[in-house]
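We examine the record.

___
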Amino acid sequence: MSHSSTPRSCSGPVSRREFLRVGMLGLGGLTLPDLLRLRATANESASRSDEKDTSIIFVWLPGGPPHMEMYDMKPNAPADYRGILNPIATTVPGLDVCEHMPLHAKLAHKYSIVRSIAHEFADHGGGHKRFLTGRIPKSPVDTVNDNPMAGGIIAKCREQRMVGVPNYVNLADGGREGVDVFAFGSAYLGPSYVPFAVPGDPTAPNFKVPNISALPEVTGRVDDRLRLLSGFDRLKRSADTHGLMDSMDQFNQRAMDLLTHDKARVAFDLTREPEALRQRYGKHAWGSRMLMARRLVEAGASFVTVLMENPYQSGIPFLKQGTYNWDSHAVNCHMYDDLAVRLPIYDQAVTALIEDLYDRGLDKRVLLVVTGEFGRTPRIENTVGSQTGVKQPGRDHWPQAMSLLVSGGGLRMGQVIGSTNSRGEHPKDCPLTPNDLWATVYQHLGIDPERTFPDYQGRPMPILPFGKPIPGLS
């Protein structure tokens, strides 16, 4: 096949071999097939499409953020529970936050905190699967899903939605974008419903969004493919007995939409934003991902995951007593030294997004969720750090209590939902599970949680086996 940009003449009918070589794999070296592969069951009837103009920005804090150092501080608890950080008052009476989050304090009327979600899976793998799928995982460890992550379900429910940008996106650190890193797999829905992965630091000079624009050396192949598409109809009529070509048509259309339209390229282009706004978010990986997420949902994406894992990038030097993610065991880090760096960056990025959503009138259409897989142990441990060689404070895994933030979605903001006991050990008022969060998300998107999809054995599996929208938010 020619690599020239000059279209090649076609002297006759397209052969089946050429169709398979160019039609199915002919994206010229691009990796769109990994994202846009054809549906697993060729004769599956077209899925219902949810056209409600709503979106989710899902900020994932892997490792487990410490609820008692952020949104559920216990200043009256014993010293080995409350820790050394102080709460500060916010614009909402009764909603105090950590002293390292002063921007949160000024903006509390535009978000709500849920303090009473809990589950039973203390391993990272089991916690990820339990939280992200809304189901009890078969194994309490590893991150390979046996049930689809909620983002994949949303992608499936909205698969007919074609707005010129990827419908389901994951913004992550380089090397951390794989679906099995954080239990983002789509399980029995099939690999078509995993997110469009955008790895790397958006502030880096060499940052590129994969699959959006054809490389110069493959432009001719794209032109060739467009020509070949025009010859598919006769082959389809003569050879298609199982609906394969209809599925291929949908696959091809999604791929070509990204390759031939400007909307996706524009949505990912942060240089189109005013410099002052980019500074408000922060010229670092976390802030830039949050701004990119806002641009994507504004352009029509349904579900955008923002990974906030490693704060030590974008020119922020690594702290010897710090740690990569939110897993603040004492053996991993000096929790308070790490939080002194981590929380101000987090504070800036999260509040900039909340302000921006409200300023742009997106607060009813877009629901922001910020959470990890569990909280941290109420009692502080002191252990010798593996990097420092000295005794330092930290907290272990604790799924029995956690806090999360929600903003927008047309919900009631400026409140605290639920509570934990005086030592932050377990829910006291309004006990909830991760399923109640997902019921809230599906309600916002207009998705029926009782809708079913067949599992690997063909059994109809409801989107959500239990759970109700969080009371008091709507």
